[in-house]
Specification:
alpha+beta, 2 domains, 4 strands, about 15% strand
Length: about 120
């Protein structure tokens, strides 16, 4: 598996083969995130997106993952701003058909890195 130099996944270990040499998953183990102390609460607004939150709070849309790390109780990062319905999840389904925005829900925003 090839990762870009400087990727936050660069040092994450691969799954190791079992005692018989079989590899059950050819991927990376979970990336250790470490504590991300949320210092600000953001109330979800209409049409919020993770990249927009990254830009709004860190001036970098690609830093959306810091918002996700500060909210470890949410399994899928998109669930921070969007709530999926339990109905049909066809690939063609639009957001309007599958759920709704989590308007007013609180999302923790970590402190911007210093230095």
């Amino acid at each position: 598996m090839t990762l870009f130099k400087g990727s936050r996944y660069e040092t994450v270990p691969l799954f190791v083969p079992d005692a018989e040499g079989r590899s059950h998953f050819a991927g990376l183990r979970a990336r250790p995130v470490g504590p991300a102390k949320g210092v600000l609460e953001h109330a979800v607004e209409t049409r919020d997106r993770l990249d927009a939150l990254g830009f709004r709070y860190f001036a970098q849309p690609r830093l959306w993952h810091r918002v996700a790390a500060a909210n470890p109780d949410v399994l899928f990062p998109e669930d921070l701003v969007w709530e999926a319905a339990e109905e049909d999840f066809a690939a063609e389904a639009t957001r309007e058909q599958t759920g709704g925005e989590r308007l007013g829900a609180q999302v923790l925003i970590p402190k911007a890195r210093e230095g």
